[in-house]
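Supplementary Note 2. Why include the ligand at all?

Several targets in our set were suspected to adopt different conformations when bound, so apo predictions alone were not considered sufficient. For every target with a known small-molecule partner we therefore ran a joint prediction. The input for zinc ion is given below.
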Amino acid sequence: MRSRLLWILLIFLGIGLLALVVRLAWKFLSGLLEGAAARRPVAPAKGARLVRDPVCGTYVDESRALTARRGGTVHHFCSDGCRAAFLARRPRCRRS
Ligand SMILES: [Zn+2]
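The joint prediction is reproduced in token form.
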């Protein structure tokens, strides 16, 4: 009787372990797929061009970004705060 109980316990343990392994494998596989998708650059909306905010580093839609011109280059910003922070910074040792 005791050994039968032990067997049932073992079977349950086996099922639990199997479920755990399957879950881990699934998590690993979906993680791989998601990781591959995440590594691809974000696809912008049709016709939109993404530009990088030099202050916070986020990518913004060029047509909707705030801009500031410095040294002949137009910089794009995600927000007024980033734009203000950029303008408050001194230009990097570039004199023309
Ligand atoms: Zn920003």
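The longest helix spans residues 2-39. Residues 53, 55-56, 58, 77-79, 82 surround zinc ion (CB under 6 Å). Comparable summaries for the other entries are listed in the accompanying table.
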